Amino acid sequence: MNGMVNESPGGDLRLDGLTKRFGRITAVDGLDLTVAQGSFFALLGPSGCGKTTTLRAVAGLEEPTSGRVLLGDRDITRLRPHRRPVNTVFQSYALFPHLNVHENVAFGLRRRGIRSVDAEVARMLALVRLDGFGPRRPAQLSGGQQQRVALARALINQPQVLLLDEPLGALDLKLRRQMQVELKRLQIEVGTTFVQVTHDQEEAMTMADTVAVMNAGRIEQLGGPADIYEYPATAFVANFLGQSNLLAAEAAGPAGSEVPVTAHGARFSVPADRARADRGAVHLGVRPEKLHLAGTDAGLPAGHQHVAGVVTDASYVGVSTQYLVRTAWGGELSAFVANSGLGGQLPIGASVVAHWDPRHAFLLPREPGHGDRAAGRLDAPVGAAP
């Protein structure tokens, strides 16, 4: 944890052309990014996408190959880590095992020569809901309690930016969800800029005001969680933040307020304002929870588009049943159907019609030669939202 010296007023965190290369490998590729002061920001992406390297460059633990890191109007690119108004909380917590909770939290203040720390340590422990835990050693705490101590130890230094490196990765599922709520509450209460690195889409969507989806050292899409989820910019985003059925299609160009498309000999349409591409090779996308299943003799809602198929798999996951439907051309669609208790589970081999409201579909650019991409099966626990 850094013994930070807070020498300047706050401001937006800005990355200006940030690049980091390791030999021939470019981990971060010309990143331009602004994190608003006082916001909760998430860098989301798979392992190896550059998100942790980006975080380490902000912390001063990696020196950029080129580009700048700015906080407000201050260039902090070349400042040593302990001189930056930044603290980091790691997945491993990095608590000092030989110190009790009180001394762990007080560490940063004592390092800066501040002797009267008791009142401030008590305030921090109350903030993270660990009143009375000061005399305990880290080994006597649960994982969630250790994470709270790590947060208190970082926040007591009053950093302008708190960096969170996969902070909940070591916790079990139930505790992780509790800590998601606690972290968001804490960020709102203290008003500090939080920048979190995670590969967990649920964490990013639950906590962050703004999400940047990273891939191969670059940001593929930036925005609010709901905006990115409902209207992804690329096939990668569509299947990393959530899952999507992507049908290989051809778009003929806009016709009024719609874009007609042809996929596997069938004709569909998508609202023009839901099209990232409107001509040539495209992917027609529908989220699995927006795909509804009906019997072949059932009437469909007005305006819905549809594909016939056969149920090939059904997986019960609590709040929903997740179906795979094989289409006439051999591709598979994934549908998440809420377990509302109003209907029974569809059997394997059942003939169904998968239908959707075109207002919930979207069009994405498709690289030539890339075919359908089924959403697959969501790895969700019982009781999780689909």
Structural write-up:
The chain has 386 residues and is of the alpha+beta class. The protein has 2 domains: 13-226, P-loop containing nucleotide triphosphate hydrolases (Rossmann fold), CATH 3.40.50; 243-365, Beta Barrel (OB fold (Dihydrolipoamide Acetyltransferase, E2P)). Helices cover 21% and strands 34% of the residues. The chain has 8 helices and 20 strands. The chain has helices at 51-59, 101-111, 118-127, 143-155, 173-190, 201-207, 225-230, 235-240, and strands at residues 13-22, 25-35, 40-44, 66-71, 74-75, 86-90, 161-165, 193-198, 210-215, 218-223, 245-252, 258-263, 266-271, 279-286, 292-295, 305-316, 320-327, 332-338, 351-356, 361-365. The strands form 4 sheets. It has a 6-stranded mixed β-sheet, sandwiched between helices. Strands 13-12-11-14-20 form a 5-stranded antiparallel β-sheet, with no helix packed on it. A 5-stranded antiparallel β-sheet has the order 15-19-16-17-18, with no helix packed on it. It is elongated and about 75 Å long. It starts with 12 loop residues before the first strand and ends in a 21-residue tail after the last strand. Mean pLDDT is 90; it is low at 1-9 and 376-386.
